[in-house]
Amino acid sequence: MAESADKLISVFVDGIEVKVAPGTNMIEAANMAGVEIPHYCYHSHLSVAGNCRMCLVEMGTPGVDRATRQPILDADGKQVIQWMPKPTIACATNATPGLHIRTKTKLVKECREGIMEFLLVNHPLDCPICDQAGECHLQEYATDYGRGYSRYVEDKNVKPKRTMIGPRVILDNERCILCGRCVRFCKEVIKDEVLGFTERGSHSTIACYPGKTLDDNYSLNVVDICPVGALTSTDFRFKMRVWFLKETPSICTESSVGVNTIVWSREGVIYRITPRRNDVVNDTWMSDSGRMLYKEVAVENRSTNYTIEGKPVGAPEAVAAFADTLNKARGIAVLASGKSSVEEMFLLKKLIAAAPAGKKLVRVVPHVEKGDDFLISTDRNPNTRGALLTGLVDGIGAVDGGTLKALVDSGSIDTVISVNECVTSYGLDREELKKLNFIYMGTHFCESSQYANIEVPLLTVFEKEGSFVNQQFRLQKFAQAVPGPEGVMSDSAFLVALLGAMKAKVPANASAAAVWEQISAEVPQFAGVSYAGIPAEGLPVDGSAFAAQPFVEGKSLHYTPANA
Amino acid sequence: MDWIDLLITLLKAVVVVVIVMTISGYSVVGERKVSSWVQGRVGPNRTTIPLLGSIPVIGKLLTRWGIFQLPADGAKFLFKEEPLPDHVNKFYYNLAPIISFLPPMIILTVLPFGQYVKDGVSSAVALTQTDVGILFVMAVSSLGVYGLILAGWAANSKFPFLGGIRASSQMISYELCIGLSLLPVFMWTGGTLDLFAVVQAQGGVLFGESFGLPKWFIFSQPLSALLYLVALFAETNRLPFDMPESETDLVGGFHTEYGAFKFGLFFVGEYAHMAIGSALFSIIFLGGWSIPFLPLSAYPEGILGAVLSVLVLAAKTIFLIFFYMWIRWTLPRFRYDQVMNLGWKILLPLAVANLVAYAIVMAFMPGL
Amino acid sequence: MAIKVLDRKPLSLAERTYLPQIISGLGITLRNMLKPPVTLQYPEEKPVIPKGYRGVPTLVKDPNGREKCVSCQLCEFVCPPKAIRITPGEIADPENPHVEKAPKDFELNMLRCIYCGLCEEVCPEEAIVLQDLYSLNSEAREEIVLHKDKLYELGGTLPDKHFKWDKKKKAAEDAASGDSH
Amino acid sequence: MHEVLFYLFAAMTLLPAVMLVCSRNTVNAAMLMIVSFVGTAALFAMLQAYLLSVLQIMVYAGAVVVLFLFIIMLLDAGRIKSFKGRIKQIIVPLAFFVALSILPVLAILSGRGGEAQVGEAVAPASSAEQFGLLLFTKYQLPFELTGFLLLAAMVGVIFISRRNVSALPKSEGKE
Amino acid sequence: MFAIALNHYLIVASLLFSIGFFGVMLRRNVIVMFMCMELMLNAANLALVAFSRFNATPDHPMMDGNVFVFFVITVAAAEVATGLAIIVALFRKRATVMADELTALKK
Fold first, then answer.
1. Model-wide pTM > 0.90
2. If you measure CA to CA, which chain D residue comes closest to E91?
3. Following DSSP, what letter does each residue of A506-529 receive, concatenated?
4. How far is D169 from chain B (nearest CA, A)?
5. Which of A445, C25, C161, C173 has its CA 20 to 30 A from that of A409?
6. Tens of pLDDT along C52-62?
7. Do the chains contact at C70 and A128, CB–CB below 8 Å?
C-alpha cells in the first residue's frame, strides 16, 4: 500500500489490532488480521453489491458522547465500545478509526447459518456432477459455517440446467445464488451489459438481455468469479475434477502484457488455465484466447524429433551437427523469437558470439497485431524487452525481407537459424533455403521447417521454466507445469549442450537458476537478481536504456505507453 | 553261477524294488491324506487319469482316494525345469540325491519279507540271507546320511550347509542309541545277528498261555523298542526330528537348492527310508510276519504261506508308516539343542542301562 | 503394577517323560482323523456369501435402466491402490436434462483393486457396489482391467426406490406446463 | 569272476587313495576316503571276513568319515592351497613313496616272501559267534583294555573340546 | 589271469600303505594327514586279514588276525575321535589346520 504509516488507522478484529488504510472495507481488514469473513457477492476488483448477506458481522465503534464529543470511558478509563444492536455486512462497511469487529459471536454464527440455509434451500446439491466441486464457496462455507443438516422438506425449485449464455459459458440456473458478480463484471470490466436478473423471488435467475450473448473475449472470467458452479466453461466442463489438478504458476504468452496465470494439469496433461491475481499487471482477469493456448501442447504438427536432413537422430548427434554447422558458417542470420525466455535469449546470444562467422545478423521477429487496450497488447511477443535486456538484439526493428534475401543471394550469409519463426514469410523461398544451411528450432512444424537441414524440437512455455520481461519491464517467471515430449531436451539444456560443443563458457547446468547466475553477472539491469529471488508478482527492471526503442504497445490495464 | 539263477535273482530284486518304491511313493500320497484327515481336510482327491478315471464307480473312487496323485506328482517332478544353480559343486550336487536314495535299496537285499515252508523246514523269503544281517543293515543305513551332508555342502549356501551339519551330528548322536537298543534283542535271540532268526524267536505267546501277550519283543523289551523307535525317527529325519530339513528355520535345509527330479529323489528317498525303517521295526519288535497267538508253524506250506506271511509283514509295516505320519502331524519339531540333549543325555544312558539290565536278567534267568 | 512371580508347578515323573502327553496328543489327532472333513469342494460347492461381502466392485443402473454413475471421480480420488480411472463425459439427453454427466469410460483395474470398499463408501450416487462376485479370472491381464460395459454387465440393476432423475424430470415438466406464480 | 572282482576292488581301494593324497579339496578327500574304505571292506568280504567287512563300513564309512566331514564343515577347511612352487617339498615324500611301494612289491614278486599260497575252500572264516568266543576267552585282557582305552578317549575328547579350558577351577588348571 | 593269492593282497596292502605314507609326508593339512594315516591303518588291516585268511585250514580257522583287526578298528575309531578333538582345539587357538603354520615350538 502506498499510504504512509501515519495515515493508517487501527481496526480491531476479534480483539486483534491491525493497521489499515482508511476506506478499506471490513472483509479486507479482517483478512489482514488473519480472520476470514465468508462472502459471495463481494469481489476485490468489482464494486460492492452487498446482496448475499454472508459477510454479516458485529461491529462496534468507540463510544463518543454526542453532546460533548468526548469519549465515553469505563471504570478502567478505557473507551467504551458501542456495539451495534444488529449485524452489518462487512463488504459494504469501511474501516473507521478504532473500529471493532466481532466474527465469532453467537449472533454472527446464527446469521451465517441462516444465510447458508436460505442459499441451500433451492440449491440442487449436484456436487458430484458440478465442475465447481472442490473450489466451490458454497461447499466450503456449508461445511465451515452451515448447520450441517437440512430442515427443508418441500420440493426444490427446478430451473433450466444447460443454458448457453455465450459460446464459451454455460449457465446452470439451479446452482446460481444470485450474487451478481457476473452482472457487475460485465458492467464494470468488459463494459458491455450482457447479464441481468429476471423473474422474482425464488424463481429469480440470471439471464442475458434479449439479443445479446456473452461472447466477449473476457467472458470466461465470469466462470472464475462465480462462487458456485452456476457458470461453467464449455472447454473445461466435465473434463476433470479440480482436486486432481496440480497448480503451476505461469505467464501467458499471448502478448507482451504478461498476464499471470495458473496452469492446471494432471499427470502431464493440461486441463485449463486460469488467471493468477497480480494487481499491477492483470488484476484477476485474463483473456479467453489466452486460456486456450494450452491446446498447442498436444497437436498434430508438434515437433518432437531431432532430425538431420530429415532423418531422426538423438539429441547428441543434433548438437554435434549444429555445432559443426556453426563452426563452418561464413555468415549467420538468426531469426530469434520473442517467445523465447530471457534465459534462452541469453544463451542464444552467447552461442552466436561463440560462432566464428564473419557476418552475423540477429533479429527478433516482431509480431504486431491489433490489441484490445485491456490485457492483450499490440506486441504479441511476450518477451521483446527480454531480447533487448539480454543484448541478443540491439533494436527491435523488423527483419527486412529484402535485405535478408539480398544477403543470402550475395552469399555473405550461408547459414540461417530460425527460432520458432517461419522464414518463408520473410522473403526466403524454398530455392534459397535449399542452398543455405538452414537450422529450424521450433515447437511446431511450419512451412519452412521441411527444408531444414537440422531440426531441433523446442518446448512450449508449459514444459519448461524461465522468465519473461513484459511491456512494463517487469521480470516475471514461470514454472514447468508438464513434462515435454519424450527425448526432447529443454531449450536451455540444448543451448547449454551446444555451447559446450562450441567450447564456450557454460553455466553449471541448464536450470534457470544456474543460467541466472551468469545473467546477473553479465547484464547490468539484472545485477543481483537470482531466479529464486524473482517474486511471484514480478520484479520491475530498469528499462530506461531502451526508452528510444519504437515500442508498439498501446494503453492497457496497468500500462500507459511513454509516448502517449 | 548259472545265468538262469542270476536272472531269477535279478527279477526278484526288480520286483522287490518296484514294490518298495511303490509303497514309498504312495507313502507320499498317504502322508498328504493323513495330514488332511488330522486337519479336517480331504486331501488330494482331484487328480485323474483320462481312461482309468472314467471307469464308472472305481474310477471315481480311485480319484477320490488320490490314487492318481502319485503319477501326477512324479510326472510333474520329471517334467519340471531342472535348475542347476551356478554356485554349487556340480558333481556332489548331482551325486547327493542318488546317495541318499541308495541305502534303503541296498538294505532291501537282506530284509526277510516272509517265510517259506517246505517239507517242514522254513526259510526266509529274502533276496539274500546273511548271518550279519542286522549289522549290514546298520552299516548301510548309516551311509544314507552322506546324501544329506553332501547335498548341504555341495549347495554352497548357508541354509543347506547348516542342514548338512545338523544331519551329520544328529546321525552320529543317534547311531549309538540304535546299536545299543538293538543289542538286548540279539542277546535274547541267542547271539545270532540274522533277522530271520529274530522273527522266528517271536512266534508264540509270552509267559505262557494265561498271560496273553504275543511273544513279540515290543512286549518283552518295551524300553528297547521305545528307544529304537525314537532313534529310528531321528535316523530317518522324520518329524519331530527333521532338523536337517527344518523348513521353519532353514528354509528347506539340505535340499533348499534342489528342485525338480532331484528334489523328488530326496523326497521319495525319505519315504523309502521310512518304509525300510518301518519294516525293520516290524521285523525286530512286532514279530515280523507272526500273527498274535499263533505259532509261526501255522503258516501253510508253499507259496500260499509265503504270500500270507509277506502280507502280514506288509500290514504291520504300513501301520508303522501310518504311525510315522500320525506322529508327524501330532508333535511339533524339537529344537536342535533338545535333539542333541535327548540323544546324548537321555537316550544313550537309558540304552546303556537297558542293556545292562537285560544282560543281568538273562544271566540269572538262562531259561528265558 | 506389582510383579507377582509364580513358580512353575514341578512336573511329575510321568510328565517329565513326556510320554503321557505324546500319547494324549496322538489321541487328539486320532479323534480328528475320525471326524468328517470340513472342506468345501469349491468348484462344485459354492460358499455361502455373507451379507455385506466385499466382492468385485461393479457399476449399477437404476430401475429405469439409467446409469447411476455421474463420474464425480470421488472413487478415483479415494481409491487407495489407484485402481480406478474415469474419463468423464457429458450426455446430451434432451429427455432428461438433469442427467448431464456420465463416465465416458470407467476403468477398474482389478489387478490393483484391494476390495477395500472405500469406493462404495464414498459414492454419492450409490453407483458403485461391491457385490458378491468373488472369483474374477482370465487368461489375459487386459481382461482383468474392467471397463464400463463389463462393469455394468456385472453390476446389473440396483433395485432401490430412489428415482432421483424421475423426480427432477417431473418437477421440470410441472414447472414448464403450469406457471406456478 | 573272483579275479575280476579282486582287481576291481583293489582299484577301488588304491585309486581313491591316490586321488585323496592329491586332492585339493578336503571334502573331496573325505568322500574319496569312503570309496577307498568301501573297497577295503569289499576286499575283506572277498577274504570271507564278512563281519570285519561290515564293521569296516559301519565304523569307518558310517562314523569316522561323518566325523571328518563334520569337522571339515565346522572348521570351514574345505579349500587347500595349490601345490605350485612346492616341488622341493614333493621330492622327499616321493622318494619315500617309491621306495616303500617298489621294494615290497619287488620283494614279493621275486618270491623271497615265500611261495604264494592259493586260498583253499575253508569254512566261513569268521562268524560273529567265533569272534565273540575269541574275544571273551583268548583276548579277554586286550578286549577289556580296549574298552578302557575307549573310556579314556571319551573323557579326553570331552575335556579337550570344552570351549574354555582355562576357565576350569584353578586348582585343576595349575597342575 | 592269475589265481588270486596272498601276494596280490599283500601288494595292494603295501601300495596302500605307501600311498598313505606319501600323503602324510606330502600334505600340510592336518585333517588330510589324518586321513592318510587312516589309509595306512587300513593297509595294515588288509594285510592282517589276508594273512589270517590264507593261513587258515579247515581245522584251524585262524581267527587271530581278524580279532586283531577288530581291535585296530576299535582303537582307530577312538583315535579319530581324539585326534579330531585335538584338531578342533588347535583350530580354536590358532585358526589354522596347516601343519607348517603350527610352529610355536620352533621359535
1. no
2. D75
3. --SSSSHHHHHHHHHHH-GGGTT-
4. 24
5. A445
6. 899 999 999 88
7. yes
